[in-house]
Give the backbone structure.
Amino acid sequence: MKKFINNPDDLTQELLEGYAIAHSAKIKVHSDKLVIRAKPKSEDKVAIITMGGAGHEPALSGFVGSGMLDVCVVGDIFAAPGPPKVLEALSLMKRDAGIFFNVLNHAGDVMSAQMAMEMANQQNINYKMYLSAEDIASGPDTPRADRRGLVGSIPLWKIIGAAAEAGQSLDEVYAIGEKFGNNMATLAVAMNSATHPATGNELFTLADDEMEIGMGQHGESGVGPTKLLSADDTARTMIERLVKAIDAQKGDRIMVMLNGAGATTLMELFIVLRGVKKVLDEKGITIVVAECGEYLTVQEMAGFQMFAAKMDDELLSLWHAPCDTPYMTVR
Amino acid sequence: MLIAGQNKVAAQHELLSELDGKIGDGDHGTTMLRTTKVIVESIEKNNDKPIKAILATLGWDIMSADGGSVGPLVGSMFLGFSEAMDDQEVLDAPLFIKMVCAGIEKMHKLSKAEIGDKTMMDALLPIKASLEASGKLTCLVALTAVVVKAAQSGSDATVDMLAKYGRARNLGDKVIGHKDPGSVTIVLMFTGFAESIESI
């Protein structure tokens, strides 16, 4: 796969420099690997920190800014950042108001966070860690510890970010985060593989007439390849599983997000979304928020993550609160 | 300088030349190359400090190499080496046993992998077991030979295992017939230690 890169060893460094140029009004890069707000939030508010590998642009660091993240610790392509940088972020945002620290459930990130938190405890940093683990690919009986954290973190940051801006306490922000985070689910589908930008290796292989539901965001396998389905059938298969996973009932309000993996067109996402709404209409479930776009990509992978979350008045109000980040803005 | 510190540096120099050729899977080779560079630089930079401090800094520096899972795992092993030490500056058999067991235990806490899961622990846990069973051995050279043997047989056994952790986990049976690269790294690392100890 041909890509516009220089030396593969310098990928992350260079992409961050370019990103900082493109969005200098809202973010800056601190200490090489920390993306922080250009205008920091006031000290008396809860800070929101996350961490994760690069290569998923605009995620994760595209959502640093007012109303969402305060700091994103950036690792190498698809690789978790190391404990020292994570600790640095926690130290940087140390405050009495506390820190909401979101870790997306992937082995490397969890281990790195664990080591950083050990040190943070020694430094008496006030934080609460929320592990997002909303991937339902492995089935309903999968223990939470084995479920990956996917695109769900992004709406999570929007919601708890708003709560933090409003001056809510760490306990209150965490409770809201749990309410949303424990009632959301993501299921991915892959059509074509991406290549790792540094090695050029394909992340996985699919035949021309195959798709795979449940693929992870680094190419980790899902439930196995199946024959291609139509957009409507794909939509139905996936939304039915998601509705079951979040236990959405007739009369409920939900958020639906279709997150393109990089090579899937907006055209396709719109067609799938239409198919999703048909099914939800049948079930009497209302879509109160619909988002279609690229939030957390996997290079040039063809496919998408379908996300659903239960909404209530509080969550909806937080969703509609203003935010100003490079890749999500609400006025 | 300090015998133990030099042992480690020599070990990493061994690794650097061997890894490139031997471990070419995906990004493990490049990750370990970066890690060993970090190790050598860190030791050279801190060469005048007490070994306990060198190892602690080393553990932390390895974690800074941002190598996904490898950083925290291997880094915590070196931190474990450091935590087991007082102010000894000379490596002897009892210290070797104490340090290495502590390092492996610390990594194990983070890793949670057991023998049979096709990871670095398949080489490391046998090392720990062989050290714990080695009570009578006071000769460092003999100890390291025992350790390398244990690591080698542990790593060899990974050939037909299914992977329980890491990205390999998702490859199903495709991993059968291939040794776990992490376990091979461990064998190389401890072989390096052994060779540098023997050469003194």
